[in-house]
Amino acid sequence: MTVPGESPASLSTAVRATDLRKTYGSGETAVHALAGVDVAFEQGAFTAIMGPSGSGKSTLMHCLAGLDAATSGQVWLGDTELTSLRDEQLTKLRRERIGFVFQSFNLLPVLNAQENMLLPMQLAGQRPDRAWMDSVIARLGLRDRLQHRPYELSGGQQQRVAVARALLPRPDVVFADEPTGNLDSHAGAEVLGLLRSSVRETCQTVVMVTHDPVAAAYADRVVLLADGHLAGEVNQPTTDSIINALRGLGA
């Protein structure tokens, strides 16, 4: 029996969507970015979302993360239903329970690396766990870059700061939107390895949108979308198995 207000999902599910729909516009010009998606993401796993351009993968991530409101359906973060929350409740939830890593880094140029890392926690009125912070900084190799401002850092270093910012609050889920899109192959592999190790070593849950089969191969599972619908998945993916799956979607 499901207790009112609790998610019917299993305790091992970090985030899930039920009959999720997102429509832009109306009438004949309506675009159905999501057309009834049912999907769940396990705690302590690294999942990639992939699909052809226009498949709805970024829209799905934005709805799962509470950045965009669904037209209908439900999104659960653990035992909290996001789709029933007011704007101020969503803002608080994102600050306290969700981490974000974006393609464009989104670091404030007037703040140094450490200040950028701590900003979301400060806005939420939280203090970092010093031992955890030291561990994250050491794993990301940022010890000698803490006082540097973004313009003094390479692209890879800036993205590592963004990863640290996402991990420090120990969020329920880290959502990564094309996190290697602005990086060269070496820096991209470095960032993906860090996300992978955060899953393996600290049981962090990571959900990543990417168009790159090499990046997606770092994940435990790849969820495929096409035309706003769930179109299958690849477990224990390799670059070749992902390419074959995407080829089957016409990507």
Automatic annotation (TrEMBL):
InterPro entries (alphabetical): AAA+_ATPase, ABC_transporter-like_ATP-bd, ABC_transporter-like_CS, ABC_transpr_LolD-like, MacB-like_ATP-bd, P-loop_NTPase
Superkingdom assignment: Bacteria
Keyword Ribosomal protein: no
Protein name, UniProt field: ABC transporter ATP-binding protein
SMART domains: AAA
Keywords for this protein: ATP-binding, Nucleotide-binding, Transport
The species this protein was found in: Modestobacter muralis
UniProt keyword ATP-binding, yes or no: yes
Coiled coil (UniProt feature): none
An annotated GO cellular component: membrane protein complex
GO molecular function: ATP binding; ATP hydrolysis activity; transmembrane transporter activity
Pfam family, one: ABC_tran
Ranges of residues in domain ABC transporter: 15-246
